[in-house]
Amino acid sequence: AQTVTQSQPEMSVQEAETVTLSCTYDTSESDYYLFWYKQPPSRQMILVIRQEAYKQQNATENRFSVNFQKAAKSFSLKISDSQLGDAAMYFCAYLRSPGNQFYFGTGTSLTVIP
Amino acid sequence: DGGITQSPKYLFRKEGQNVTLSCEQNLNHDAMYWYRQDPGQGLRLIYYSQIVNDFQKGDIAEGYSVSREKKESFPLTVTSAQKNPTAFYLCASSVLGGGSYNEQFFGPGTRLTVL
Fold first, then answer.
1. Partners of residue B94 in chain A, C-beta under 8 Å
2. Angle, CA of B71, B34 and B32, to the nearest 5°
3. Alpha-carbon distance B58 to B33, whole Å?
4. CB contact under 8 A, B48 and A101
5. Nearest CA to B50 among B102, B8, B7?
6. Which end of chain B is more exposed for a tag (fewer CB within 10 A), N or C?
7. Which candidate from B92, B99, B109 shows the least CB-CB separation from A33?
8. Cβ contact (<8 Å) for A106 and B42?
């Protein structure tokens, strides 16, 4: 089974600053997809950003961007201009292609300091 | 609005009782999933189903059962055989074969507490 590792259980960032959350994964597949999900205190899981492994260009969604290093099997999330509403648990997830089973990391709890 | 509903939001059960958690989706998704979330352990897959009347065990299926009689519904039963059932349970759904658009959509979750 694939494994997804998030080595930072907790992180904090000052409001308006930038923070990077780390994620590594283990796979022998060449085609797959990676995702970052956000779980705020409401506990509703929300998709933040996705990356296709065959794309070299890093995905970007407004203040959220990823640094995808396929050879290193690394998929970090950068949050720029952090806002109070960014405070949440963030989960990295892997999806094999073809396939429908997700593998989630253990999460990183992000605190935003005003 | 399309989405996934889970009920109830909070559920209390006495030891030795079976309890069923509801999950309904109106997204016309073929695949549905049940996850268990515990502090520090992320999301662990209990069961998943890709088609009506068929489902597969995930990593922690022991003590749980499911059914998929309708495309829209995927109820989870937590049986008395589950040793430590107190947890937060999340239901999700996705399309099949959509590549990166196989993203999973999640319901709001059910918090189960065994008294």
1. 100
2. 25
3. 9
4. yes
5. B102
6. N
7. B99
8. yes
